[in-house]
Amino acid sequence: FVNSGDRSFQAKILELSDQCQRLNLYKDNGISYIDYKIIIENAISIGEYDKALVFAQTNSEFLNHDHKQSISQLMLGKIYFFKKDYNNAKTKLSKVSITDYIHYIEAKLITCRIEFEQENYETVFEYVNTVKKFLKQHTDIGKHFYSVYSIFLSAFFKLARISASNLEKQEKNMELDMLKQSVLKAGAPMYASSWLVGKIEEKMKADH
Asked: What single-letter DSSP state applies at residue 63?
């Protein structure tokens, strides 16, 4: 499956997934983590949250992965996050195993984003520092993941700091715009960059 960003294509992916389920293909052959993840994220991207939940819950047991429980909890947490059901999101994300490094980090990052949405900026700072330390302690995560997460954490920390500040509107918006431009012009891939830019723009509008 490939996520092209085309809404009609995303709907077709969900239709194909429905066919696979009707034919018991996932039950008989299992489903890869990548397919499981992309199907759920496609449903999220077009606002089909309930469909994403049903798919995630129904097919998690068929995952071909050693950490199927962590992956299931992470994806459920992600769905609830985008539904803005933050309590359920936090509950699910807290169940991701710390021994599953990659998914544990993403669970912490989504939890950090929830704290930002709830304007708990001090908690955001704590989460950012915790994840940074975790990344440094687990070098086996790989250079790619270390880079995309570290770049996000740096920009996200700046956004939280600006949001928590007592700067005048004009100065705050100037800093936000500078941060936005740095994110947009970043040469390297960044975790959740579109979400981050969206949050920067929200803060800029809210300050007018």
From this structure: B
